[in-house]
Each structure stands twice: as C-alpha cells, then as structure tokens.
Amino acid sequence: MIQVEGVSKRYGPHQAVRNISFEVERGEIVGFLGPNGAGKTTTMRILTGFLPPTEGRAVVAGFDVMEQPIEVKKRTGYLPENPPVYPEMVVDEYLDFVARIKGIRGPEVAQRVDAALERTSIGHVRSKVIAKLSKGYRQRVGLAQALIHSPDVLILDEPTVGLDPKQIIEIRELIRSLSGEHTIMLSTHILSEVASTCHRIIILNQGQIEASDTPANLIARLQGGESVQLEVDGPAAEVAAKLQSVAGVDRVTRGSDVAGRPTFTVDSQRTADIRAELARAVVESGWGLYGVKATGMSLEDVFLKLTTTDPVAEGSEGEAEAAVAAEEN
Amino acid sequence: MSNVWTIARRELNVYFSSPIAYIVLAMFSLIFGYFFASGVAFFQSISAQAAMNPGMAPPMNVNQFVIQPTLGNFTIILLFLMPMVTMRLFAEEQRQGTIELLLTSPVTDYEIILGKWLGAVLLYGCMLGLSLISMAVLFLYTRPDWKALLAGYLGMLLIGSSLLAIGAFLSTLTKNQIVAGALTFGLFLLLWVLDWVSQYSTSMVGKVCSYLAMPPHFEQFTKGVIELKDVVYYLSAIFLGLFLSKRSIESMRWKA
C-alpha cells in the first residue's frame, strides 16, 4: 500500500530524513517511533503529498506522491499533530466542508458525515462549535476528518498526544478498530502506544531507520537471551563470582542494594530458564536468597538502545548494555 | 470548479459567522452613506442657486454631480476596509494549521486560492449591494444615466477584486494577521499615492509610477467610460495577485 524508496528530505543544510526505504502492506498498522526531531512528521508529510521529497520516490495506494498528488490525496486521510480544525465552525459544518473538498458530492456527503461521526462516537457534539470542545473531542473530530472519505491509507501524526489516559485508551481502541479496512501509519514517541496498537514498528532516529520489525521480534532480537534479577544476602564479590560460574551465565552486573542486600542482574545467552540453577548455587553456598525475577527487556530498553546517542551507548555493545542494565535498576 | 465554490462558501460563512462581515458592512454603509448624502446635499444647493438665476446655470445632471464624486470618494473606503477582509485569508489558516488540511486534500493550489479570493469578492459584492440602496434613492427622485452608473459599478468591482487578490497574496506571506494587514494597508496606500510622482516628474520612472497607481484607472469608470486599458490594468492586478499567491503556497510546501 505504501512503498518508500530512498527518500531524503533536506531543509537547507539540515537533513531531516536520510535515504529511508520501507513498505507497508494493506491493512497493516505500522508505528513510527522516534525521539522528537527524528523525521517522523517529515516522512508522514511526504507520504501525504504535502511535502515533496528532496530525493527518492514514495508510492501511496499505487500512485507516486510527486507525479499524481491529487490521486494520492484522494486515497489518504491525514491527521496532523494538531488537528486541522476551524475553531469557529460547528462540527457538522466542518465535516461537511471536509467531505466536499475530499471530493464527495451530493447526498453522499450527509451519509459520510453521519458515518464519520458514528465511527468516532462524536454524534452527540455534532452541533457544537469546535472551539468549545475539549482536546479529546477535537482529536476525534480530527480523526473523523481523516477518515470521512474512507481512504485506503490513514496517516496519523501523534494521535494521542495531549490526551488524558482514558482518552488515550479510547483513541487507541478506535485506531485498532480501523485496521483491516484502512492501512494505518501512526507516529508516536510513546512506546506503549506502538506496542499496544501496531503490527510493526519502524524506529527512526536522526532521519534514518534504525530498525523495522514486530514489537515482539524487536525485543527478542535485541535482548538475545534472558535476564534475571536476584537479591541475595551475602558478600557481594563472592556472590557475583559464584553466579558467574553457573553454566550459561553470560554476565553478572551488580545493582543497587536493597535494604543492605546486594542485587544482581544476570544475563544469559541461553533461552532456557536458568533461575533454578542460580537459586541452587546461592542456597548451596549458604547465602539467603530474597528474590529471583526474570526480566525481559522492555520496549523502552530497545528504544533507548537504538536511539541513545550518548557516548556510553556509542561505545562497545557491552557498555551500551551495561548502561541499559543500570537504567533498569 | 465545485471545489472552488466549496472553499468560497466556507470563507463567506466565516465572514458571516464572525463579526467581520457585519462590522465591515456597517462601516462601509456608514461612510458610503455619508459620501452619498454630501453629494446629494451639494447637488441640492447648486440646484437651488440654478433655480434662482436660470440664465447662469451650468448644465446639471445627477451623474456628474452626485454619482461621480461619490464613487470617486468610495475608493478611500476600500483602502481601509479591504486589508481587513483579506488579512485573515491565509494567515489564519497557517496559524491554525488548517492549511495542512487544504494542502493534503485532493484540490489544486489554484482551486484553494480562487476559492478564498472568490469568498472575499462575494463579501465585497455584499458591500456593493448595500451601496445600491443609495443609488435606488437617486432613481426614485431623479433620472440618472443608468448605463454610466453600470460602468461605474463595473469599475468598483474591478478595483475591489484586484485589491482583494493582492491582499490575498500578502496574507500568504505570514502566520500573523496583523502583519498581513499592515503589509496590505502599506502597499495599498503606496498604490494610492504613487501618481504624485507624475506631478513633478515626466521621466520614464514617473510615467511608470503613475501608471501603476490604482485610483487614476478608476476615474474613467466614475464618468461612465469603460476604457480597455483600465480594464486590462485591473485584470492584470488580479492575475498578478493570484499568481503570486500560487507561488507563495508552493514555497510554503518546500519550506514547511
């Protein structure tokens, strides 16, 4: 549904997007993840035909965004970061206007307006002036605007930003319910958002794609094994040495003390569970074992690992992992 | 074409759902009414004089004594009111971010620009409509030459539409309505006084300046004369304003 080949975008000397390529299949929900200024909005604007790319080619719904922008625009719905609503207009009036400029004519306009209102459950505010609506409702009006012409592709730039937790959940559910009939690209810098709504994540950093995979695969790939946290009552150095000697243990990192007892993070290369072996080693040495917990690497860690640019992360891979491990504690 | 109409209709809606249209129309009616009333009062006083010494009386007609000066003064109102009509056209869209909606919809840049300009022209049409009330009064009591008046109204439509096109362009340049308004008013004022140059200079520059000035091209229309060169002047101004708007919106895409 979306093909991006070698797209770059420069603003004067500033390179916002560098040579990115990716594809999105019909019905997929793909999340763009990245820190602020990573090029998410720029990429999305290129896909909507709002911005021309400096280099490369983007094809949306079978049409080149540069050569046939009108055809692309007929088939895409776009919700910018700030919903593009006219505050002085009434919701109904606004959606009627949007439907018409999206190319809908005649009695179909009213049908589409009703359908969009129902879809985003804002029927009860249809005769209110947009300026009087809360941020959450305005966001829904923005969403209604994006899907009024039932586009093949929906592009949503940070659809949940500025909403309260309840509204966030509602919007996410709405987005999930839209998949299948629409292909959706959404951007966010909130990790739980992509994990809960997207089939696939594209991590952007400094205008480049750092990774592109399913949330589960991304975690598995970067994690490369299990990580176990232990809390032990015993001499720290000896405990560490003992843990290190357990078969399959890759690395032992000392964490901060809890109530005077040292804690350790044990990384293993094996996918097999080594918690039992670790516990046995501790108990057999006569130390008190206060806790054993398997901790998978969270999406937050993956994200940090991929996008952090501080010197620690840019050094050896081991150091980067140590930094991540330290953050966990 | 229906896209143009959709956009124009929304513009007109904005004007009329906010105080803008009412204030502009009210101020226009007030000032136009004052100009008209003064014209009529002057005409009355010289008519009274002419009645006393019929021999000395100059040939009198309403077109020359009422309509022509009223329309001549009328352009002053445009100088002040037109910037208020056009300053929001694109500046507001840019500030609200709704320009993104327009530019990502399946409409061309020209459709957007024409629609917005047409919306403003329609509001201006309402102003002209209100001014017709005064003219109707004239027709009740006198017999003006309606063909000359029609030419005057064509001129009014042309001068107003060209100011609106130029104002629309200036509004694409900024997000700030006040900045757009100030730029527009400044440029209009310059277009008004540009022919002063012709009073002390007969050089090429002087000629160009006085040609560019806006009001002199309107003068013939007030007398009921439609000259091709004046029509061409206003049509070029409209075209230039709309064309520059198009270029400005294109550059918005590259910069955004």
Quick structural overview:
Chain A is α/β, with parallel strands linked by helices and 329 residues long.
Strand line-up in the sheet with most strands of chain A: 6-7-8-3-9-10
Q: Return residue spans of chain A where pLDDT drops below 50 for at least 5 consecutive residues.
A: 310-329
Overall spatial form of chain A: elongated
CATH architectural label of the largest domain in chain A: 3-Layer(aba) Sandwich
Instruction: Compute the average pLDDT of chain B.
Output: 91
Tally of contiguous helical segments of chain A: 13
Main beta sheet of chain A: strand number and arrangement?
6 strands, mixed
- Topology of chain B as a string of helices (H) and strands (E): HHHHHHHHHHHH
- How can the largest sheet of chain B be summarized? none
| Radius of gyration of chain A, taken over Cα atoms and rounded to an integer in Å | 25 Å
CATH fold assignment of the largest domain in chain A = Rossmann fold
Give the beta-strand count of chain B: 0
Q: In what range is the share of β-strand residues of chain B?
A: under 5%
Count of extended strands of chain A: 14
Label the overall shape of chain B.
globular
Helices and strands of chain B: which structural class?
mainly alpha
Helix content of chain B: over 70%
